[in-house]
Amino acid sequence: MQLIDGKAVAQEIREKVKKAVEEAVKEGITPGLAVVLVGDNPASKIYVSSKARVSRELGIYSETITLPGDISQKELEDVLKNLNSEKRFHGILLQLPLPPQLDEERAIESISPEKDVDGFHPVNMGYLSRGHPRFIPCTPLGVLYLLHRYNIPVEGSSVSVLGRSNIVGRPLSILLSLKKPWANAAVTLLHSRVKDLKRHLKDADIVISAVGRPEMLRGEDIKDGAVAIDVGINRVEDPAKEKGYRLVGDFHWESISEKASAATPVPGGVGPMTVAMLMVNTYLASARVEGIPWGIDDNILNSILETKKGEKIG
After folding, report:
1. For the residues of 128-183, what is the DSSP string, one character each?
2. Tens digit of pLDDT for each residue in 157-189?
3. Catalytic positions, written as ranges
4. Domains along the sequence of the chain with CATH
5. For the whole model, what pTM was predicted?
6. How does DSSP assign 80-143, residue by residue?
């Protein structure tokens, strides 16, 4: 079985973004990212810290705006709207999930579509569904990249996407079905209400799981030679570990390894790609607003984003 090493590929992408940012800085443009964190969710704090660290490493200006967990909807929306007018920020990321009293959809709609580097704004989702994405959500973009980086046939393949969230499953299913050279797949979007779920999984050449249920899929659930892309990141108790837990995906790694032709591990698979693609989207936002020539030299990425090194993008 081929190990799809997202950690190594993400590092390659980060190096390319860093070079592009260095060229932008020479032109007097520093890509900027504002990350908004509401409350004190431990996992969210870790994710935000990681994004800030990578931004600094790549030369991207980043600020984390930390807001109290009991903030009102209006107060949160006012913060986001104010960030829209801040010229030093080309991208705005609202860390999810939000505390239960807040409406995520309304909050996301408060972010300018031109600065929505997560790609969750309904305007950007509309562009994506029409086949002309302005921003591709970071995790789906990372999955697409890995499939092509490892020469996994997508066009004409049968793909099962398990999970229908607006963050991963739904946009990824749309992207893979688009009439594009990097897509053109036959996509089935699966969820808990689908009858005979395992039959659909067995028919798929590529199985992508993003449901967040630890090790729910085993080797016997997929056909011989299928590709397993694991987006799930789950904590399970493990007294043998120093932290008292270990991270696992939605796939049971040992049994999947015996059946799949290629698979992403957890950790070290899709996760690092998500952060790398956030950096790409932040640079993309700055290039559009500032009119600088596109500086990322990567054939796969440029094919998906329909960009070309050295050319200005609209």
Report:
1. HHTT--SS--HHHHHHHHHHHHTT---TT-EEEEE---TTTHHHHHHHHHSSSTT-
2. 999 999 999 999 999 999 999 999 999 999 999
3. 51, 95, 118
4. 24-127+277-300 (3.40.50.10860), 138-268 (3.40.50.720)
5. 0.96
6. HHHHHT-TT-SEEEE-SSPPTTS-HHHHHHTS-GGGBTT--SHHHHHHHHTT--SS--HHHHHH
